[in-house]
């Protein structure tokens, strides 16, 4: 059975970002999460992470549509 919740380390690995960047996404409210346990460990529901990824795809599509690249030199 796949886990329902992910740690911030799991989120960071999935998105290929640092743990501090994952924490910043949670603290900003961009990625919904809950605190659990006596030490207040952050957990992100898998479905919330998938919804976040889909929102980022939509934002990227919108950005590309309104900001076409002028040439290939913009690719890093």
State the gist of this model.
This protein has one domain (5-67): Multidrug-efflux Transporter Regulator, Chain: A, Domain 2.
Give structural notes.
With 76 residues, this protein is of the alpha+beta class. It has a single domain, classed as Multidrug-efflux Transporter Regulator, Chain: A, Domain 2 (Orthogonal Bundle). The chain has helices spanning 8-15, 19-28, 46-66; strands spanning 5-6, 34-36, 41-45. A three-stranded antiparallel beta sheet has the order 1-3-2.
Report the C-alpha radius of gyration, rounded: 15 Å
- Strand arrangement within the widest β-sheet reads 1-3-2
* CATH architectural designation: Orthogonal Bundle
**Fraction of residues in helices?**
40-55%
- The 3D shape can be described as elongated
Main attributes of the structure:
alpha+beta, Multidrug-efflux Transporter Regulator, Chain: A, Domain 2, 76 residues, three-stranded antiparallel β-sheet, 51% helix, elongated, 13% strand
